Amino acid sequence: MPRINGPSQGEGLQAVAMAFRILEFLAAQRGGVGVTDLARALDTTKSRIHRHLRTLVESGYILQSPESEKYRIGSRLVTLGRAVAENFDLTAIARDEMYALRDALGQTVVLSRAEAAGAVVLATLPGPEPIEIGVKPGSIMAMHPTAQGKLVLAFGDPVLRDRVLNSRLDMRTPRTITSPSALREELDRVRSRGWAVAPGESLVGVNALAAPIFEGGGHMVGAIALLGSIQFIEAEPSEAQIRRVCLAAARISARLGHAPRSPLDVA
Fold first, then answer.
1. What is the pLDDT of residues 130-180, one digit of tens each?
2. Residue-averaged pLDDT of the chain
3. What is the pLDDT of residues 93-114, one digit of tens each?
4. Spacing of C-alpha 149 from chain mean position
5. Nearest partner of 62 among 32, 17, 42, judged by Cα
6. Of 84, 115, 131, the domain-final residue
7. Less CB within 10 Å around the terminal CB: N or C of the chain?
8. What's the number of domains the chain is made of?
9. Cα separation, 189 vs 154, whole angstroms
10. Nearest CA to 194 among 262, 95, 140?
11. How many angstroms separate the Cα of 76 from the Cα of each of 16, 73, 93, 181, 198?
C-alpha cells in the first residue's frame, strides 16, 4: 500500500494536543492574548503557535482583534461549550456511586452541582431509616453553613470566595460560622483534607460530610455528600465514612476525565 504524504500519526496527535492547549489557555483568560505570551505560556515557538492560531481562526474557534492583534475565544467554541453543558448529566454519571454509598453507610446521599449561587441539589437518595433527613432537588445550599457550600468556596472561584468572606454571614444556628476569619480557617482545612462537614451549622442536630467532584480540567463541578443526624455522622466523621465519601467523589471525577492524585483515590 502506498504511503500517504503528510504528517505522521505522532505529529498529528501532537498538533491536536497543542490546539486543545491553546483553546484551554485562551478560555481561561479574561482578555485577549498575543502570540508571544501564548508561546511563552505553552513553552513553544511563536511560529508553531502562529500556525495553530491561523487554523483556529479560520475554523471560527478563536478570534483576532484587528486593533490589538490579540486572540480570544470565538463564538463557535462558546456554542460547543453550551452544547456540551446541556448534555452533561452529572446525576446519570454519579447514580451508581450514590447507591453504593447509601447501601454501604446507611444514610441519605445528596448530589449537588457547584454554581456561583451555591451548591444546587441535583438528586437525593434517601437512607433506609424510617425517619428521613433529606433535601429537595433544586434547593440551593448556602455557602458558609453547609458542607457542600464550603466545598464550592474552598475549591471554586477565588473571586466568589472573597465576595462571600467580605459579606455578612447569616447565623442559621448557634453553631453557624459567622466570623470571616474563622470561615477562612475552615476553608483552609477543607482544602487541606479534601472534604467538608457542617455539624449543626445549617440545621440543629443534622450534619453532612461532603467531598468535591472535579472534571478533567481540574475544576470542581459538584459534590457528593452523606446527610444525616449528628448521632450517625459526628462532627468528626469516622474514617470509614470519610474514605467512602471521598472514594465515591474520586470515582465520579475519574469518569469525568479527572486524573486521581494517587491510585488509592479510585481503588
1. 777 878 888 899 999 999 999 999 999 899 999 999 999 999 999 999 999
2. 87
3. 999 999 999 999 999 999 999 9
4. 12
5. 32
6. 84
7. N
8. 2
9. 9
10. 262
11. 17, 8, 27, 43, 42
